[in-house]
Specification:
Layout lengths: L1 E5 L9 H11 L6 H20 L6 E3 L1 H12 L4 H11 L18 H22 L2 E12 L6 H11 L2 E5 L1 H19 L17 E14 L10 E6 L5 E17 L3 E7 L5 E8 L5 H6 L3 H9 L2 E10 L1 E8 L1 H7 L12 H4 L5 E13 L3 E14 L9 E3 L4 E7 L5 E7 L5
Length: 422
Amino acid sequence: MRAIGRTLTTLAVIMIAANASATEATNVPRRTNEQIITEGNNKFALELYARLRVGKGNLFLSPYSISTALGMAYAGARSETESQMAEVLHFPTAVSEQVKPPADPASGRQRFALEFGKIIKDLNHRGRAGGYELEVANALWGQKRYRFLDEFLETVKTNYDGQFSEVDFVKAAEDARKTINTWVEKETNNKIKDLISKGVLNSMTRLVLTNAIYFKGNWARQFKEERTRDAPFTLADGRKIDVAMMNQTAEFGYIQADTFQGLELPYADDELSMIVLLPKKYDGLSELEKTLTLDNLSQWLAKLHKRKVVVSIPRFKMTSQFSLASVLKSLGMKNAFSAGADFSGMNGQRNLFISAVIHKAYVDVNEEGTEAAAATGVTMTLTSIGPARTPVFRADHPFLFLIRDNNSGSILFIGRLMNPDA
């Protein structure tokens, strides 16, 4: 038997040789490693969202967390397992030669881990120094006295800050589960509880990879509580409910398209923002979601322009949880979840596979700002210009939203609000 547990992370696959020749031919500036990786992560984020949106109701997740967790597992993947993971997650199989490669220049996976790690460390550095809280934490939980390769553990520790701890899945799986869940709860400021449910871990589990991401930021321009009023919110089926709507008029990034409006609500320091995409029709979210591609989103974001906007948006909280194995397999990551998996980069043997990928996310949007958290666990087991008048952006029906890092362009969280009271 083989099995494996893992956490969130995303990236993109790029053919550098073809890229380089095209760059030289057209004199287009070569993209940085950060841009290549971020573009890949965002592409995976939207492809994953497209698979998950077919369900009903509210939806919220951190594709960045999922990519990071899987990125740690990727460090130990080999042969076809590695190539399938790279294709689905859009991890570059190599990165730009613009920077000096790590000690082993032949190792594309080491170079990738180095560059991905730089993005994580930059987010953490700015999260500690800025006017908001942002922390990405990783950890490995291995079976006591089970031998993992030093190279694998060092790669995860050095690049992902993933500390390795020993637990006893064989004799005390429930104690191990509680230990891991306690770590997740602590790293998400008590917002993500019981990430791993009873029965997920057993005596065949050998490794769990976890990622936690926590964000708390105040709006750059806060809503005043005294202006919050109960008002109707129209659900997708046409029914109306009363919800608390926050109100203000100020300058924001704004786009008016044929079928939707877009709004950028920046957080303190303007380093992160919430982007809200609001269909013009109360039942138009499904059609908008179908057009949500990386190219379209990039075009929409490029057209945001600052102007005075009358804004009304609901106050809401939501928690979402997913088991992602079947979704990842449907995207093409099949070997990693089968007896044919090759994670020999972890332990020198082909006797581990991913048994579960679990993700849970939480968001709270209020007058002061936003608090969001997410965690991912991977378990390894054996075998356009608007009108002249001031536009009104009234989010009184289902909409899509995402939280992005403006410096790198990384999509940290993405979701939709179907019912603020659900």
